[in-house]
């Protein structure tokens, strides 16, 4: 599968919670980080998802927000702590890479103004924030 999304993480389904229309899929990466995805029950069936199955979590870089708050209280299910390893500043946007551990890199594309206002620097410990509805599941 070739896709344009910058963030593709391999993991194992550790929990499935079915609702009437949607389902919550929780997968665990090799470094122990858990990522939550909300997808349709139909997608669960089409992908034949079961606990223990190896899958990919796919997240567009534009769906990743970044915060330097230590005790962030927010409704997003995925708050992934990491260290900034690279900042590539363009004219309008900045690409920020976070090392989540064990070479798991989360890439975020934020506005240049946001990067400058918060004054992100390489080495800063921050959180990548992703809503569960922004995490796609693939095989």
UniProtKB/TrEMBL annotation:
Pfam families in alphabetical order: TOBE (PF03459)
Domain of life, per lineage: Bacteria
Keywords for the protein's UniProt record, in alphabetical order: Molybdenum
PROSITE patterns: MOP
InterPro entries assigned to the protein according to its UniProt record, in alphabetical order: Mo/tungstate-bd_C_term_dom, Molybdate_resp_trans_reg, Mop_domain, Transp-assoc_OB_typ1
Mop domain location: 2-68, 73-139
Protein name, as recorded: Transporter
Lineage, top ranks: Bacteria, Pseudomonadati, Campylobacterota, Epsilonproteobacteria, Campylobacterales
């Amino acid at each position: 599968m070739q896709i344009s999304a910058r963030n593709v993480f391999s993991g194992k389904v550790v929990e499935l919670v079915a609702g009437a229309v949607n389902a919550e899929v929780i997968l665990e990466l090799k470094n122990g980080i858990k990522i939550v995805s909300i997808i349709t029950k139909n997608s669960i069936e089409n992908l034949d998802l079961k606990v223990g199955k190896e899958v990919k979590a796919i997240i567009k870089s534009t769906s990743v927000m970044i915060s330097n708050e230590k005790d962030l209280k927010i409704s997003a299910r995925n708050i992934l702590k990491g260290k900034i390893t690279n900042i590539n500043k363009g004219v309008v946007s900045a690409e920020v890479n976070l090392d989540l551990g064990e070479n798991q890199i989360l890439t975020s594309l934020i506005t240049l103004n946001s990067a400058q206002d918060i004054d992100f620097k390489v080495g800063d410990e921050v959180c990548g924030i992703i809503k569960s509805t922004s995490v796609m599941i693939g095989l």
